[in-house]
Amino acid sequence: MADSVSYFLMAWLDPSLLMLTAIGTLAGIYVGAIPGLSVTMATSILISFTFSWDVNDALALIVGIYTGGVYGGSRTAILLNIPGAPSSVATSFDGYPLAQKGEAGQAIGLSTVMSVIGGLIGVGVLASVAPFLSDMALKFAPRDYFLIAALGLLLVGSLAAESLSRGIFAAAMGAVIGLVGLDQVTADPRFTMGSMQLMGGIHYVVVMIGMFGVAEAFFQLHQLNAKPLRQKVDKIVPSLHLVLKFLPLSIRTSVIGVIVGALPGTGGDIASLFAYDHAKRSVKHPSRPFGKGAYEGLVAPETANNAAVGGAYVPMLTLGMPGDAVTAIIIGALVVHGLNPGPMLMIQAPHIFWFTVGNLVLANLFLLIFGLTGIKVFAKVVELPKAILIPLIMVLCVVGSYSLNSSMTEVYWMLGFGLLGYFMKIFRFQMGPVILGVILGPLMDKTYRQAMSSVGNDTGSFLLSLVTNPLSLVLTTAVVLLLLSNTPLKRLLQRRRQA
Amino acid sequence: MSNEPRLKAGERAFNVLLLLLSLGVLYEAYQIAGFDLPNSPGAFPILLGLIMIASMIAILWGQRQHPKPDTQGALDETRQFLHEHFPLAIVVFLAMAIAYLFLLEFLGFIPATAIFLFVAQVYLRHGRLLASLIITAVATGIIYALFKLLFQVYLP
Amino acid sequence: MIKKVLATLALSVGTLAVASSAFADYPERNIQGIIQWGAGGATDNVARSLTPHVEEALGTSIILNNRPGGTGVIGMNSVMQQPANGYTVLYGAENPQLYPIMGLADFDYSAMTPINVIGQGLVVIAAPADSQFDNFKELLNYAHKNPGKLRMGGTGAGGLPSTVLAMVNSVDSLDVRNVTFGGDGPGITAMLGNHIDFMPLSLAAAQDQIPAGRLKGLAVFSKEKIEELPNTPPITQALPRIESYLPWGPFWAVAVREGTPDAIVKTLSKAYEKGVANEQFQTFLTENGAKPLNLQGEKAEEFLNRWQSVTAWALQKADAAKISPQDVGIPKP
After folding, report:
1. CB C215 within 8 A of CB A320
2. Which chains touch C (3 or more CB pairs under 8 A)?
3. Best of A188, A192, A398, A409 to disrupt the B interface by mutation (most B CBs within 10 Å)?
4. Chain C contact for B32, CB < 8 A?
């Protein structure tokens, strides 16, 4: 116990570790904020620097980058409608409308405090029930991932604002985009139309940058001469009253975040979409309608994606299996530093666990400090004349999509998706469902086929397996309920009751 | 059903185009593995193609009674569509963006970006040469420093 | 520590200064390393452990990127699409040598210039810790009585599990359901949760899990017991006739696009030779039950050709090759 506490406090008491965590968090915020620069990329570059360092130094820096990076994505999502990372897509749904109402400062302030709350809850879960949670995560069979993906795709009902058929169309189109390329299982080309370039698939960040960033930039060109909105920047730190008001919601969405994050195979991007949907369903009287700048729509995804960080560490620290791409790199770093990041890690090197937990708490505190300073400057970005802002957004989108693979192909795709997104926006299609499809479509395809082969390609036993296992049964019930609430069936029932 | 929103100019044409796209998706999906269901690489794509077609038909069906856009004939509708959604500023900006992408490959990142930022600002702000020049220089410098020096991203 | 950060920054500024001079020598900027398998697998572990040592020898950063999918075709293809200037290197496993006979692609390593064949690994057939089988013999007996019931974790056609399965099937019969994962990492996770019954794995990926009691080793794919897993019997105990294929194991290699200038190939080869020879990396390889090879140039090509002809004809014999090795010009061993 005393050992745990001393490991926990290690990063707090050592000035150089303290400094590295701070630098990491600060750098992470900016890496995360820039679309195309991902936390994964930043950590993988850093690993090569930190090779000659002490392992604790390297871990401290990475923890900072990771925490800051997941949060940073919300910055550009709120200010420019370009989610800095896929886990911030849901943040843009209500964050950007808030900035358009002159509340960019408040939105960033609230998202900072909520991210920290989510992050701390995530760490708390990691510290208290990590072994239990990882055992639970292992129980998820391919069929359960399939059901989770299905559940996620049904969120289209709450993302598609006015028209369900448009939402379904957009989600299916997104899933097709996600499937382009060589099939993961059989290596058959799908939707490549004979092009070698398409064999590797279309990166979903390209779709995201194009459909959110570029399409919005084109839209903004209509209001070139509109006077830039003055941002209210006086009350940036949300009042205690406001924070307490959202506390119940943020605890619920953090739990969603940490569980989805702990599942190897799903992460913050899916967690934040689930959380957004949960908020939309459970909050009856939001501060404003969802999609028009509801604080609740900002709180939910921001708490969930930061809580997912703590979740992602769960399988890594308990089993040595990566929970996502970043933890995979951390495992690589531990190997390079001569540690065996396997299931024995907690026994052979128990200090790593408590050191990481302490470090994560520290990084979240730094996040609070760095997140709440400099907001005024950021909010002013929205006040820049459109004629300056729009070309800059364009350059940012180009650099972001280029840096994914160092190739121009992605850049042309980005512009193409930007134009398509512009057209779709004109004709009242929503962008959220497209991204939902791009993220979840491939997951659903892969897990469906794994589940099918597990039962010997027999449709009957596949369907049976969805209801005979307790975990699957819960998920199946959720899918069915969601399906019923989304379809005319519900209306039909209500009508019959009224009659 | 007069309370339905009036169709936008070009809306029906766009939706029909998307329906054609969906048919194309279904055809391509069929090409993957035929109807070799239930566990082939083509199974899920075929399902997606069918969903796209069904939902688009539902959209078009739902719109059959919406009032038509206030235009005479297809030509007028096209004109109105272009007028509404592709005013000169957008067309020119799009052209500049495409030119920028080409320039990137020929000139490299720094000159192409500087030219694009400068020209786009001068055009969108109707002049203001000096201010545009300064902003261009600062922005290009910051982006270069951030990406190339700090994050070591290889730029074209 | 802060000094180190500053030194790093200074270093990157320095790299830039070099980069801006037009006549600078290779490498003048950082290099992209594409790993053809996903995070957490054997190829990924090898690449990430080796690269820091190569970076040191090369004096530049190598940015690693996982591009998994299609038994590694996606990653290899993406390297072959990049210019032949030595700024994109492939970290591959053995799979490309089987693409032609599996009909996955019409190229193999001969379409690239090998830089280094890093080492050759061992295979272990693993099962969940609470599996009803204690060794491969028991599993085979069960499968004979219940064909098509066991779930095997796979990584796609031409992946290591399907190659091992084919070899087993050429001397015995093992009819299983093949559940495909994106690599051995996700496969191990699924096995930990009992969602598959067994999976042939590269020892470099599974070795930590077996001594920890999380997984059970059913058989080592070799003629004798190995030091790393003293309690796991060799596969020849259950299947004596498989001996003709042994020793067999996956390997890891680094390659660049064909047509890369000789000088650059030489620089890279030297750096990788030094990196692989690094003591720390050698320890990593041997601890993971792999044999360091560190082959360059002709020797690397020789190794690749030999491995290909042995494996391809074994698969042909097992009736697992979609296209006969004869038709794609692979000579008999």
Report:
1. no
2. A, B
3. A398
4. no
pLDDT in tens, C14-44: 444 444 433 357 887 778 899 988 776 788 8
Angle at A232 between CA A230 and CA A233, to 5 degrees: 120
pLDDT of residue C20: 40
> Who wins on pLDDT, C272 or C27?
C272
Q: Which chain A residues are Cβ-neighbours of C192 within 8 angstroms?
A: 138, 319, 321
Tens of pLDDT, residues A282-308: 888 888 888 888 999 999 999 999 999
Count the Cβ atoms, other than its own, within 10 Å of residue A244: 9
Cα–Cα separations (whole angstroms), residue A460 to A382, A464, B35: 56, 6, 19
CATH dotted code for C19-121+250-317 = 3.40.190.150
Which residues in chain B are contacts of A222 at CB distance < 8 A?
87, 90
Write the CA distances from A42 to A51, A62, A141, A265, B150, integer angstroms.
Answer: 15, 9, 32, 21, 10
Residue A179 and residue B44: Cβ atoms within 8 Å?
Answer: yes
Q: Is residue A190 within 8 Å of A182, Cβ to Cβ?
A: yes
| pLDDT tens digits for range A406-461 | 778 888 999 999 999 999 988 888 888 898 898 888 889 988 988 988 888 888 88
Q: With contacts defined as CB-CB under 8 Å, which chain C residues touch A16?
A: 1-2
> What residues of B are in contact with residue C13 (Cβ under 8 Å)?
149
Query: Residues 220..279 of C with a Cβ closer than 8 Å to A: which?
Result: none
> What ipTM does the predicted assembly reach?
0.89
Domain ranges of chain A: 2-498
Residues 46-65 of A with CB under 8 A from C: 47-49, 51-53, 57
Contact across the interface for B152 and C61, Cβ inside 8 Å: yes
* Residue extents of the structural domains in chain C: 19-121+250-317, 123-245
- Pairwise CA distance, residues A271 & A277, whole Å: 10
**What does the alpha-carbon distance between residue B71 and residue B73 come to, in Å, rounded to a whole number?**
6
Domains C19-121+250-317 and C123-245 share a fold: yes
Q: In CATH, what number does C123-245 get?
A: 3.40.190.10
